[in-house]
Amino acid sequence: MEQLINVFPGLLSFSQMPTEMAIARVFLIGLGFLILYLGCKDILEPLIMVPMGVGICMVNAGILMMPDLADPSKQKLGTMFLDSMVNTPTDHINALQVYFLQPIYALTFSNGLIACMVFLGIGAITELDFFIGNPKLSLMLAIPAELGTFLTFPVAIAMGFTPKESAAIAVIGGADGPMVLFASLQLAKNLFVPISIISYIYLSIVYSGYPYIIKLMVPKKIRGIPMKEMTIIKVSSGEKISFSIVAGTVLSLLFPVAAPLFVSFFLGVIIKESKISRFINFADEVILTGSTLFLGFLLGCLLSADIVVNPQMFKLIVLGFVALFLSGIGGLLGGYLACWLSGGKINPLIGIAGVSCVPSTAKVAHKCANAVNEEAFILPYAMGPNIAGVITTAIITAVYVTKVQLL
Questions:
Q1: Measuring CA to CA, which of 11, 136, 232, 337 is 20 to 30 A from 53?
Q2: 52-63, pLDDT tens digit by residue?
Q3: Nearest CA-CA partner of 124 in 294, 287, 361, 258
Q4: Are 309 and 24 in contact (CB under 8 A)?
Q5: Which pTM does this prediction carry?
């Protein structure tokens, strides 16, 4: 048996790592298979979960002893995928020659470019009609849906995280993956990998978890409000372009630290409304699809055993759940308020769409309403608070990044 193990470096590495690391490695390989299965079955978001599951399985299977870039005379446990901990220019150059995913990580991930690419693609498939026609209602629903973003910050501090780390964790409550990447890179690079992984796993679970919160909080009869009495004001492409350029410019002026995200999103909207078919197809089918694929795959490849055995990982798992759970509750409470103020014309489920996982939470709201009443086609209405949630999350992220730096 020992001779067999010595023949295969991957098996040999099991005997050369701490027991808890070996157990975590086996657990993660199993987790990768589970995530892949749930993604293929469309129980979790397949666009992220399928490549993430593949990455988790294979990065934890492919661990071996390899030279330490900092000191080639020594060896360390590692993979041929990527090294997220390189710091010096020399280490970066060496890493680019060793790890096959290092160029993608260094040039698109660690500088936030992939977050901007996702935002560009999302903008190119986003409908702004209800938001522009009903901005007050949309924002009124988006603000309470940030409950987790606000309350998780003091909870994280109480659990021993620094203000910067706490702010980066709290942004998970906005349910906006690119925003979480951006905030963690700006505020907590040391926790960038675990925060990013946890946030995207939870964002996928939102699609299957939020319906249970809806069923617990909203009676069946109210879930089926069709909203037929509310008309969606038709907004012309010119008005959408004008809104996008003005809103993007003003938001960039007020919150310049988040300007890359604002410009990416609104550029996508303008491309869509300009009806430049070649740009639209490229933004959707190439940029959004490609960046989503590599985002999920790289996140999976970053989830190696050493991340799981980090003692802070359990705290992050708890805080990520708390952030998204509170935001979902806040969104539904805002929806109830809108329903009451409208005399029962507004379906409160559109409040949970204020949790800005575009367009997943809007789809969740619509699916839950339509399951009760086939005439309740509320997706177009839910997109209003969904878009407003993107903007409010970006604003809160910018405030955290700007103000928490001073603490």
A1: 11
A2: 999 999 999 988
A3: 287
A4: yes
A5: 0.87
